[in-house]
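Components:
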Amino acid sequence: MHTDAQRLEDGSLIEGDLCIVGAGAAGISMALEWVGQGRKVLLLEGGGFDPDPRMQDLYRGEVVGRPYFPLEAARLHYFGGTTNHWAGLCAPFDPIDFERRDWVPHSGWPIRRADLDPFYARAQRLLDLGPYEYGADHWGRQEGGRARLPLDAEVVWTKMWQFSAPTRFGRKYRDAIVNARDVHLYTHANVVEIEANEAVRAVTGLRVRTLDGKEHRVRARRYVLACCSIQNARLLLASNRQARNGLGNGHDLVGRYFMEHIEMPAGQLALATPQLGNVGLYRLDYGKTKASGELSLSAAAQHTHRVLNGTTSLQPLPASPDLRSTFQVLTPEVVDAFVRIERGDTTVLPILRKLGEDFRPLQPGERRFRLFSRQEQAPNPDSRVTLGAERDAMGMPRVRFDWRLTDLDKRSMRTFYEVLGREVGKQGVGRVQILDWLRDDDVTWPGFLSGGWHHMGTTRMHQDPTQGVVDANCRVHGLGNLYVAGASVYPTSGSANPTLTLVALTLRLADHLKAAAA
Amino acid sequence: MAMHRRLFLRIAALGAASTLSGAACATSTDDSPDLRALARPALLDVLGAEQVRAIGARYRAMVPAERDAAALRSAIHGRHPLLVRLLGVPRVAPAELVRRDFAEGRTVEVQGWVLSVTEARQCALYSLARA
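Structure:
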């Protein structure tokens, strides 16, 4: 069922068993799990079914740390959320990503990769991916055989990625949600406050506002925040009537540990012989390739060199000598073009064609490659989201966004290429060049420093309430009926794009909630 | 003991000759087949002449003690220049030296390229020959 909250009478009360706040990848995945379960599930979406500049403006905020793209462009505020423009790259986190590493402060999840494996397998289907199979051997046997570089997997291994269509959740699952009898979608329903009981031990309701000035109340037995990392933190921090520092923030952790993936051109690979250039496993022909590989340091090598996890893709050298980062290639204009082309706006085709020049697929026999890094960011309590002084059209405080990196981030990336260079030389594969910006020192970053438009952290998972906002079941510490879904619960960011893992975690949370409701 | 004494005498003699006719000795060394082989790094096929020359020049600037051909040659073979003249050079192909360097972690970064120390020196020799 679907209701536009703007059409409700002002002051309406909406009631259900479970209330999900946000209809992006996490919120829709959660809602789908309840179809046919006989419970009344409320799915609240701030936007409608189409993009609306007024809704995007609600995400505007102040960027005070390292330069970042406008926050209102980084996440989409309508049904389907940011899946309306995501690129579809998927890979599970590696087992080491879940472990406590003594060289990575604040690392370690309260769950293991094996705990998530069954949910990864289920998430694959929601994201229209292939089998839950990420072995290079498996994919190397496909399509008549796809060769890979002969490197020692004990040092450098080939991490596989699969590619979603990319699945636009808003389009694909709209009918399933709207036609479900037990899921009730409310669009234009912006949650502006979470209300708790007097003891601040449980959530009693939500205050919802619409752009036309109406205010409604929502009551449910359990609540799931699924609004993305920045907005989850913002909503908890802004819900500060009963708890001065915001809900779930008794230990000043909400909003902290914001993480991105550092995505930068960082090196070059020159192959020793043309014969080695037939490395089809690394080829990515966007929109056609089902899976492709990237090079990654083994867990043992990460341990030996005390570095973060990361991968590098092999890309053809661009015609221009300028090597551009993700932020330079995927500008807000380009990202917006993804949304507009989906809606049949062909005026953006020249923008997307130009983008294609940067992503020419590898050709057999190429000997020179651009090495493009995608690296985990070390958890950093000073990298954070707080509330600013300005308020948006709903009366909510806007965010103050302070993205910060540490020396470990840069040292890890440089070490990655040093180890890769030695391994590539040792195996007679070729030689690696590390770009200037990476060689300078461990502190400075170039002007083209870039993330991957991936937002993680801010409500991190930890069994100890003094070290995490949610527990291993994604329940907010201290609040009996408030849960968080999405990448905001990640204690560490891994090197893989966040979507597959956040959907898997959401399915795990859904199972937990079903068991609790039974 | 007798062998050590003979070796000492040959080194002393070679040292005297070197002092008396250094230029002649250098010329002779430059023309040696070993040196010509060393100055043709396999990296030429991978990176091209221009890049190899630039790497070589940079390496010589980074390691002043290995600025000339004799010093580079002796460094590659791990023998003092006098011993190279006295005993010759080990019969190991440059490719094998490069392989051993990578296997044993003897690498150096020149202009960002992660290279075996031997091939960096080879680049330096190449850059000298074409300077």
